[in-house]
């Protein structure tokens, strides 16, 4: 991708994760604000990146500016995310800046994140995609994610590493 550099996500990327989480929550229309991300535990845990727990991610930058991020968090059952399927399966989130959508950047980030999962011997990655977000769902299906039995209405999907 011309002009795009990729790097690992770090704890210093907190503001990026807040922006990404907020925009993911507001994918169809403004519903929440930055205060909601911090005030609501079901949102806040998506910005609590902790590499010591095994969390990992990829940031796409155009020049000095982040224009996309994909991250996977090992959220425990007692603080489960919307796409939680188990403590040993990290939950994946993906965001691309609106001005960069339609360029294949989301796919490039997701492929790097899934490669990182394989490199870490992670057998599966889960996510949740809201009903109606057909563009995101189509991307996830094309990457090999499948609906979790009994959880399709919740939009829960899982990707399983080849050979797992």
Automatic annotation (TrEMBL):
**Protein keywords:** Acyltransferase, Transferase
Listed InterPro entries: Acyl_CoA_acyltransferase (IPR016181), Bact_Acetyltransf (IPR050832), GNAT_dom (IPR000182)
Ranges for domain N-acetyltransferase come to: 4-162
- Name of the protein in question: GNAT family N-acetyltransferase
């Amino acid at each position: 991708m011309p002009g795009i550099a990729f790097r690992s996500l770090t704890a210093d990327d907190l503001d990026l994760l807040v922006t990404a989480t907020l925009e993911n929550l507001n994918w169809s229309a403004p519903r929440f604000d930055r205060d909601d991300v911090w005030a609501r535990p079901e949102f806040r845990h998506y910005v609590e990146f902790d590499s010591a727990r095994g969390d990992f991610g990829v940031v796409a930058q155009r020049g000095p500016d982040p224009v996309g991020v994909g991250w996977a968090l090992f959220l425990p059952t007692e603080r489960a995310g919307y796409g939680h399927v188990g403590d040993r399966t990290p939950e994946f989130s993906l965001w691309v800046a609106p001005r960069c959508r339609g360029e294949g950047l989301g796919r490039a980030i997701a492929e790097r994140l899934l490669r990182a999962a394989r490199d870490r011997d992670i057998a599966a990655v889960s996510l949740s995609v809201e009903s109606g977000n057909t563009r995101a769902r189509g991307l996830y299906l094309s990457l090999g994610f499948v609906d979790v039995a009994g959880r399709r209405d919740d939009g829960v999907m899982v990707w399983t590493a080849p050979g797992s």
